[in-house]
Amino acid sequence: MTPWLGLVVLLGSWSLGDWGAEACTCSPSHPQDAFCNSDIVIRAKVVGKKLVKEGPFGTLVYTIKQMKMYRGFTKMPHVQYIHTEASESLCGLKLEVNKYQYLLTGRVYDGKMYTGLCNFVERWDQLTLSQRKGLNYRYHLGCNCKIKSCYYLPCFVTSKNECLWTDMLSNFGYPGYQSKHYACIRQKGGYCSWYRGWAPPDKSIINATDP
């Protein structure tokens, strides 16, 4: 069994597999949390894959061409291979070769990057403009904030560093509007709040508490 499997539920986030395959259970996570809790965050294109005999069902090793790194400069400044379980029931990730660019997040163990269905993995062309800006600088600004999930009402924040995440209450399902368009950023006075602006955060408007 590869090392990340024991952490799969605790570190889970939304991904290409949505809620994953049968027997793969992922806890929802806002993209900002996925960013802040990952060792590696990169944009890359898959250029090859092979199956190796590791773990109960083998391990898929994808060869990638790294386009840009957003997080992980000290862990692994250049990623050439990513590892995932071969079985989707163990949260293994299936990626297209020589077709799309992907946003990939994962953890580093023994000098190797591991990812899976419970990590934040998405086709680059499917990300919103706000998510791309979040990857570049906004998410990093909010790594000291806490995004608190709300599954049913009433929900309340209990400390000044929390933002209330209510996507799961929406009729539009999950991931929702806050996942796609908002970042939780610390503001003046030490309070964290949602930020949606199209320009870099401004002290005069970042005090807003929407959505």
TrEMBL record:
Name the GO terms of the biological process aspect: negative regulation of membrane protein ectodomain proteolysis; response to cytokine; response to hormone
Q: List UniProt keywords, sorted A-Z.
A: Disulfide bond, Extracellular matrix, Metal-binding, Metalloenzyme inhibitor, Metalloprotease inhibitor, Protease inhibitor, Secreted, Signal, Zinc
Instruction: Give the signal peptide as a residue range, or say none if absent.
Output: 1-20
Question: Could you tell me which SUPFAM superfamilies the record lists for this protein?
Answer: TIMP-like
- Principal localization reads secreted
Q: Name one GO cellular component term.
A: extracellular space
**What are the transmembrane regions?**
none
InterPro entries found in the cross-reference section: Netrin_domain, TIMP, TIMP-like_OB-fold, TIMP_C, TIMP_CS
Give the matching CDD domains: NTR_TIMP
In Gene Ontology terms, what is one molecular function of this protein? metalloendopeptidase inhibitor activity
Keyword Disulfide bond in record: yes
For this chain, the annotated S-S bridges are 24-91, 26-118, 36-143, 145-192, 150-155, 163-184
Q: Provide the residue positions that the database annotates as binding Zn(2+).
A: 24
Give its localization. Secreted, Extracellular space, Extracellular matrix
User: Where is each NTR domain found?
Assistant: 24-143
The family note in this entry says: Belongs to the protease inhibitor I35 (TIMP) family.
Q: How does it assemble?
A: Interacts with EFEMP1. Interacts with KDR.
Protein name per its UniProtKB record: Metalloproteinase inhibitor 3
The species this protein belongs to is Crocuta crocuta
